[in-house]
Structures are given as structure tokens and as C-alpha cells.
Design goal:
The chain is α+β, with helices and mostly antiparallel strands and 258 residues long. It has two domains: 159 residues, 2,3-Dihydroxybiphenyl 1,2-Dioxygenase, domain 1 (Roll), CATH 3.10.180.10; 82 residues, 2,3-Dihydroxybiphenyl 1,2-Dioxygenase, domain 1 (Roll). Helices cover 26% and strands 37% of the residues. A hairpin with a 2-residue loop joins strand 3 and strand 4. Pfam families: Glyoxalase_3. InterPro entries: Glyas_Bleomycin-R_OHBP_Dase, Glyoxalase-like_dom. This is VOC family protein.
């Protein structure tokens, strides 16, 4: 089954325009997305082709607290303000019902939800979300969620460009290279996700800066690099303070977002 990296969710309690300005200073184009009225959140977006970073913030605390059916909103509320930054990511599919059945055959419990957002121009964007709901604990890496945009990729990209949501980066024609994910056991976690998603394994390596050994899974739009500490150092410190979590998005020009 074909999968692609859809977007990284960056949890924040800062002003969204502050993120847009910071990205602009790095040569990146970003824009306000809109409001999720049923979830009490709103976002800003920075696209690299059809893969993007979503800066997600609480717009209405009362509504967000009541949006318990959406695991992403629950995680956002738990993580803010202490765990701002990359928090979760979505994998794109155009066969979300088939993905749901396949995951359940593998013994996973799932929840399928409709999603929508009011854009800046007043139009309504709709999609479907699929979450894996049985996982170990809050300090373990949460499984990614899945998204189906209910329209062909080419049509969606054309629409996003016409609306000015996808724009040209002053820094150049950039793509996502990889997402580094801090975990306790890179081989075990990557093998588990490989079984779930049917992804191919890439060549592992040592990240000296993190003091971590990394296992690689190949995914269209952005590779997944699972990194576990081999001693004391930044990776171990991150595990101790934030648990297993997405850590850093690296772009094709070497720029990182974390």
C-alpha cells in the first residue's frame, strides 16, 4: 500500500505569525492555515511540495478540552507548554479505510475521524484521520496518524498553489530530507514500524552530534530516522526530559527545524 510523509505537527503556544516571521528570516515561505472550529485549534503551514510543517496552537481552550475524540488534540494539551516543538506526524494515503482494516488485522486498535478546517478565504477543507489507539504509555513513541485528503495529489497541489498556501522559498527549491525521532531502541522501533507500514529499510548510521545510533526507514516525502543513545549525551538527555518523540526535521539544504 502506498504511503507518503504528509506533515509534521509542531506544537506551540506562541503567536503563529511569530513562527511565520522566523521562517521568513530563514528563507522559507509560510502562511496562516485556518481554524479547526470543532477542535479549538488553528495553524500556520510551511510546505515543501505536498509535505509540510503544521504549527498547531490552541485557539479556544474550552473547545479543545472537549475535543477528546481526537487523540492529537489530547496530546497537544498534554505537551504544552513544556514540550513545545515537533510532537507528531501524519502519513498520507488515499485508501484510509483499507489502511484501517490492515492495521486491525495486525492487532492494532484504530479510530477513524472526519476533519475539517475553515481557511483564511472562508472555504472549508475536509479530510479523514485515522489513529492507532492502543499504545504503551505516554513516555513511549506514539504511532503516527494517517490522513486522506479525499482528492488526488495533483489536484490538491494545484489548489494549494492557486490559493497561495504553497509558495516559493527564497532559500531555493527545498524538500524534506529526514525526520529524526529519539527512541530508546532504534532497531526495535524501526522494525515494528516497518512491519506496520511495509516500508523499506535504509542504511543505518551513527549521529555523533546526538551520540546516537540511527536506523532508517524510507518514506516518500521524508525519510524516518530512529535514533537511540549509545551513552550519555544529547539523545539521552532528550529521552530523559521529553521521552520518545520526533526531534528534528532536516531539509535538503541542511536547515533544521526542532
Amino acid at each position: 500500500m502506498a504511503f507518503a510523509f504528509d506533515h509534521l505537527v509542531y506544537f506551540t503556544d506562541k503567536e503563529l505569525n511569530d513562527h511565520i516571521d522566523a521562517l521568513k528570516n530563514q528563507g522559507l515561505y509560510a502562511s496562516l492555515g485556518g481554524s479547526h472550529k470543532n477542535w479549538g485549534t488553528f495553524n500556520a503551514l510551511c510546505y515543501f511540495g505536498l509535505s509540510y510543517v503544521e504549527f498547531l496552537a490552541v485557539e479556544n481552550e474550552q473547545i479543545a478540552q472537549q475535543a477528546k475524540e481526537n487523540p492529537l488534540i489530547g496530546q497537544l494539551l498534554r505537551d504544552l507548554p513544556d514540550k513545545q516543538g515537533p510532537g507528531q506526524f501524519a502519513i498520507r494515503t488515499n485508501r484510509i479505510e483499507e489502511v484501517k482494516l490492515q492495521l486491525e488485522k495486525n492487532g492494532l486498535e484504530t479510530r477513524l475521524l472526519p476533519g475539517s478546517r475553515k481557511r483564511q478565504d472562508g472555504s472549508i477543507l475536509s479530510w479523514k484521520l485515522l489513529f492507532i489507539t492502543n499504545h504503551d504509555s505516554e513516555d513511549k513513541l506514539l504511532p503516527p496518524f494517517f490522513i486522506d485528503w479525499l482528492q488526488p495529489d495533483k489536484d490538491r497541489e494545484t489548489d494549494l498553489r492557486q490559493k497561495g498556501i504553497i509558495g516559493s522559498h527564497p532559500a531555493g527549491n527545498l524538500k524534506m530530507n529526514h525526520l529524526s525521532i529519539i527512541v530508546e531502541d532504534a532497531k526495535k522501533t524501526s522494525s515494528l514500524w516497518q512491519d506496520w507500514l511495509g516500508l523499506s529499510a535504509g542504511t543505518g548510521y551513527t549521529n555523533e552530534g546526538l551520540q546516537a545510533d540511527c536506523a532508517v526507514l524510507e518514506l516518500e516525502g521524508c525519510e524516518l530516522h530512529f535514533c537511540s543513545p549509545f551513552g550519555e549525551g544529547p539523545a539521552r538527555d532528550l529521552l530523559n526530559t521529553k521521552g520518545e518523540h520526533p526531534y528534528e526535521l532536516v531539509l535538503s539544504n541542511g536547515l533544521n527545524l526542532k
